[in-house]
Write a structure and sequence with these properties.
Keywords: Membrane, Transmembrane, Transmembrane helix. The chain has about 240 residues and is mainly alpha-helical. The chain contains 7 helices and no strands. Helix 1 (about 10-45) packs across helix 6 (about 145-185), helix 2 runs antiparallel to helix 3 and helix 3 packs antiparallel against helix 6. The radius of gyration is 43 Å and the shape is rod-shaped. The chain starts with 10 loop residues before the first helix and ends with a helix.
Length: about 240
């Protein structure tokens, strides 16, 4: 049974939907992150965003920007049935999937590392405003339920893995269609006559005077020959 999108829909429609949703969602999230960084820089409110959090926002924003461009490439590839675009979309989708898995693991490690730490232990008697803001953000961060945290990480990974599977199956289908089209065009093409080259030794053989003896070209075997004895007997009778 051929692969389908959501068990009953065409694979091409699945690639179009996946690439379009990826472009819209990832582009919106990337734009939101870059906008937040730009606002924080203009207001000089860097105390609320620590250096580590700023680095995290930049990395995540770059990943989502890259994912949005990948989605746009796959969308045009599915619309125009360009196997090269769809293959590029599949490869880049796998790369983004690997980055997503890596960032999710890092996210979970950070979550569970700071979960057992209290606010006072994090501040540790420091009067630095940046340190206090950082510890308060971690304190609010660790109040997130574990189920919601795990679901927010596992569900996107599963959806992304299924998207990779659908795009991979569509690339294979485009390859089969291209192969079948090429084979059909060859089967209906007119056969060309084969050219038999003349060997060098064949050119020396005369065509009008063959060297092979042919018995029916001899005089006794030629058409209309009269035997000599019967011819002499007829002449003798004429003389009498």
């Amino acid at each position: 049974m051929a692969a389908k999108f959501l068990c009953c829909l065409p694979l091409r429609l699945g690639v179009i939907v996946i690439s379009f949703c990826q472009f819209i969602l990832c582009g919106a999230l990337a734009g939101l992150l870059w906008f937040a960084l730009a606002i924080a820089k203009e207001d000089n409110d860097l105390s609320a965003i620590t250096q580590s959090m700023k680095t995290t926002v930049i990395v995540v924003g770059a990943i989502y920007t890259f994912a949005a461009l990948v989605g746009l490439l796959g969308f045009f590839g599915a619309i125009f049935k360009k196997n090269g675009f769809v293959k590029s979309f599949y490869v880049l989708l796998c790369v983004v999937f690997g980055l997503e898995v890596g960032s999710s693991v890092w996210y979970l490690i950070t979550f569970y590392r700071t979960r057992g730490q209290t606010l006072d232990d994090c501040i540790n008697g420091s009067s630095d405003a940046g340190r206090i803001a950082y510890c308060k953000s971690l304190d609010a961060y660790k109040r997130v339920p574990q189920g919601a945290m795990l679901a927010s990480i596992i569900v996107p990974i599963l959806v992304h893995a299924y998207a990779c599977y659908v795009v991979y199956q569509y690339t294979k289908r485009l390859e089969r269609q291209k192969f079948e089209k090429s084979r059909a065009s060859k089967s209906f093409s007119q056969p060309q006559p084969a050219y038999q080259p003349v060997l060098p030794h064949d050119e020396n053989v005369p065509l009008t005077l063959p060297s092979v003896q042919y018995p029916y070209t001899d005089g006794p075997n030629s058409f209309g020959h009269v035997h000599k004895h019967s011819f002499d007997r007829n002449n003798a009778s004429d003389k009498v």
